[in-house]
Design goal:
Length: about 375
């Protein structure tokens, strides 16, 4: 539905995850029967949840542990782990400095060059411990280090930027990464993102993406929407991009998963994203709260250390439990941030969805009062959904 902003501009209404609710159908099923398996590239996982490629979220140990638990973690190839042989003193500095000194310190620490030998070392460390080696780079980083990544034996590579498109214009002195050529030439699946529109999703799939990341600016530590004024609320973005996936599948027979990236905190958020059409989700701050996370109870975005225009900040998230509690339980909190797999299975059981494809077909309604209706006492006492 178009809205007239003024005589010279029309707008389309978009919806965020907090504005929608899922409607039970005419059957239910035992949560134990809910099948949450999905595939990304040639890898099958039980849990459709990926830990974001952020320095406060995933290091070698977290990548290995997430693999053991049936999920997936992505290592940032242009972060602390590949700039410093021993990242621990650097992480200690990041998490101990005051908020007024933070931006300058980040710009200083991330000015240290990325070392190709450390890229190879980190990938091999993950593989040697039996983990899935999924790594992330910007388009510039991918053009520089793609061969190193492939040689080291990575399982998946994510090419991520605030916005990625196949129609990128660069100065004459810069040769932009040809996404289609990169996908053709590298011997591992390539996941591309981020985007929020039907048209760009379709373009990325035609370029050879093994999956597409959806989301601009909703992340807990991201400030892109404030700094740039750019973004589309996740419910609408996921639904639009999922439509492109379905059309691409009808045309080609090639099913390319959609991954909702950012803005998801609770199990309910994840359930609603899948109901909007996502095949999986990528989350950062919920995993930054794990006792094993490298951020020591802090979380910051990938664009936070930009030397010219930071588009993220450092937030205190605390440590609330182990990564196993967060993913598989048992839950030690009552706010939906623990046992995310259990929440998904229980929601699917309540909705009567046997697998993720059926979950994508459940009825969705616009419900702005969903999280506030009847929750006066929780809000007043800061319990459960009122935290």
């Amino acid at each position: 539905m178009e809205i007239q902003l003024g005589r010279g501009k029309k707008a389309r209404r978009a919806y965020g995850i907090d504005e929608i609710a899922l409607v039970p159908g005419n059957r239910t099923l035992d949560p134990a029967l809910a099948d949450t398996r999905w595939k990304i590239g040639n890898i099958e996982r039980e849990i459709p949840i990926i830990a974001s490629a952020m320095d406060g979220v995933v290091d070698v140990g977290m990548a290995v542990r997430l693999s053991e638990l049936g999920a997936l973690g992505v290592l940032n190839l242009e972060g602390i782990q590949t700039r410093y042989d021993d990242p621990n003193p650097i992480l200690d500095r990041i998490t101990s400095v005051g908020k007024d000194e933070f931006v300058g310190l980040m710009q200083e620490l991330y000015a240290e060059p990325v070392k190709p030998e450390l890229i190879e070392k980190r990938i091999q460390e993950i593989k040697q411990q039996g983990g899935i080696a999924a790594v992330s780079a910007t388009p510039v980083g991918a053009s520089k280090y793609g061969e190193v990544v492939a040689k080291a034996g990575a399982d998946l590579i994510f090419i991520q930027a605030t916005v990625v498109s196949t129609a990128h214009l660069s100065p004459e002195t810069v040769t932009p990464l040809d996404l289609a050529e990169f996908c053709r030439s590298i011997p591992i699946p390539v996941i591309l993102g981020n985007c929020v529109t039907y048209e760009v999703t379709l373009d990325l799939m035609k370029a050879g993406a093994a999956a597409v990341l959806v989301g601009i600016g909703p992340g807990a530590a991201c400030t892109s929407r404030g700094v740039l004024g750019v973004g589309v609320p996740q419910a609408t973005a996921v639904a639009d991009c999922a439509a492109a996936r379905d059309d691409f599948y009808q045309e080609t027979g090639n099913y390319v998963p959609i991954i909702a990236d950012g803005g998801l905190i609770t199990g309910g958020d994840i359930c609603k994203c899948i109901a909007c059409g996502a095949d999986g989700v990528m989350i950062g701050s919920p995993f930054a709260r794990a006792a094993e996370a490298p951020g020591r109870g802090y979380h910051w975005g990938m664009a936070t250390p930009s030397p010219i225009l930071p588009r993220g900040t450092r937030i205190r998230v605390g440590s609330t439990g182990t990564v196993e509690q967060i993913l598989r339980g048992p839950a030690g909190l009552d706010d939906g941030t623990h046992n995310l797999l259990g929440a998904l299975k229980t929601s699917m059981g309540t909705l009567g969805a046997k697998d993720l494809k059926e979950m994508q077909q459940v009825e969705v309604i616009v419900a702005p009062s969903l999280l506030t209706e009847g929750k006066v006492y929780q809000k007043a006492q800061q319990l459960g959904m009122g935290k």
